[in-house]
Design a protein that fits this description.
four-stranded mixed beta sheet; 5% strand; 4 domains; 63% helix; globular; mainly alpha; binds glutathione; 4 strands; Glutathione S-transferase Yfyf (Class Pi), Chain A, domain 2; Glutaredoxin; 14 helices; 369 residues
Length: 369
């Protein structure tokens, strides 16, 4: 009988053990579920704080936490299905029907500024993106919507507004979402200065890329100014925290100038500029921005083609065109002088010398070719 009792006893102990293990598993499961539920509750209430219109939020101000959450909300919305591009054959949307629309081109850096602003503020649902084919624009765009016929343009409250720098301010001030300009007056003043400098930087850069020399000096001065500006406040961005200023510069510097200078002029704009390097690194962590990036090969290919940089570094076609223009000026000047000489208008010695020198130069060019 004893062995039978032992087996029975062992079975009872095993049964109790199994029950205890099951109990522990159940309790753990319940705890996990409770914490998940609590987490969802706090995320969604924070998300609501960050994305609801100001009047729904009442007096709620954007704290650091809600600001961070807004990014989270924006991030989750980033998996946005981008609408197809409208070309000349496309019908217009029902204009001025109360829908807020942002007209862009996926490759336009000016439009990209407004698109990043919209994304960062979590306005993907509120502001509908309407991409336009700039090479084959629909007529209704100019005729019925925006006579300037450029992108970006914003259709809002029965009005159409343009100009990227005005629009990013407008979107920031008239829509909900995290504020993209700090309250601090010193920072605001600096923002105004930097936003106006962005146009200068663009001109200097495009000019330098098109020029035949290396242009490192002029461009270097401009990027030193940016490096200096990035050191003014504590943080990787121009005003410390991410703002409209970063949005104004990012599409140009990160995706266009930096790779273009590197490829066309063999010049690394970030070399010896650690703050600029860090700024680019940090920008590339912001989904509201990265979601607007375009395929770099296609983007740079398009710009090089427009700037006439595709024929190689010396661009012979451009040389020929410039030469032809110079020749035309010479011919016009010479014809003028001949006419004056024929009407017995006295030419100065200098004028005669000029004609003579030009003839000599022309002959030597022809003889050498
Ligand atoms: N100053 C304007 C410039 C906008 C602009 O030049 N957009 C270009 C595309 S990147 C455009 O629409 N070009 C068409 C055209 O000039 O006909 C802004 O900041 O919004």
């Amino acid at each position: 009988m004893r062995p039978h009792l032992d087996i029975f006893g062992t079975c009872v102990v095993a049964n109790t053990l199994v029950k205890q293990i099951l109990f522990v598993i159940n309790v753990t499961n319940t705890l996990v579920n409770i914490s998940r539920w609590a987490l969802t509750l706090s995320w969604s209430s924070l998300a609501r704080t960050a994305t609801n219109p100001a009047h729904e939020r009442g007096q709620v101000q954007y704290s650091n936490v809600s600001r961070a959450m807004a990014c989270y909300v924006t991030r989750s919305n980033m998996i946005e299905q981008l609408p197809s591009i409208l070309d000349a054959s496309a019908d217009p949307p029902i204009l001025f029907d109360g829908t807020t629309r942002l007209y862009v081109s996926y490759t336009c850096p000016f439009a990209q500024r407004t698109w990043i602003t919209r994304n960062y503020k979590g306005l993907q649902e509120k502001i509908k993106l309407v991409p336009i084919d700039l090479q084959n624009r629909p007529n209704w765009y100019k005729e019925k919507l925006y006579p300037e016929n450029k992108v970006p343009a914003l259709e809002h409250n029965n009005e159409v507004k343009g100009e990227s720098l005005d629009l990013i301010h407008y979107i920031d001030e008239n829509f909900e979402g995290p504020k993209l300009l700090p309250e601090d007056p010193t920072k605001q003043e600096f923002a105004t200065e930097l936003l106006s400098y962005s146009d200068t930087l663009n001109k200097v850069n495009f000019f330098a890329i098109k020029s035949k020399g290396d242009a490192h000096y002029e461009v270097g001065v401009a990027y030193d100014k940016l490096e200096e500006a990035l050191a003014k406040f504590d943080g990787p961005f121009f005003l410390g925290e991410f703002s409209l200023v970063d949005i104004a510069y990012a599409p140009f510097v990160v995706e266009r100038f930096k790779p273009l200078f590197s490829e066309v002029k063999n010049y690394d704009v970030t070399k010896g500029r650690p703050k600029l390097t860090k700024w680019i690194e940090e920008l590339n962590k912001i989904d509201a921005y990265t979601a607007t990036k375009h395929d770099p090969t296609e983007l740079l290919g398009g710009i090089k083609k427009r700037l006439g940089l595709n024929e190689g570094p010396q661009c012979p076609l451009q040389d020929v065109w410039q030469g032809t223009q110079l020749l035309a000026i010479d011919v016009a000047a010479a014809t003028g002088l001949i006419k004056r000489a024929r009407t017995s208008d006295e030419l100065t010695e200098k004028e005669i010398f000029c004609v003579y020198a030009k003839c000599l130069a022309r002959n030597s060019v022809y003889n050498n070719s």
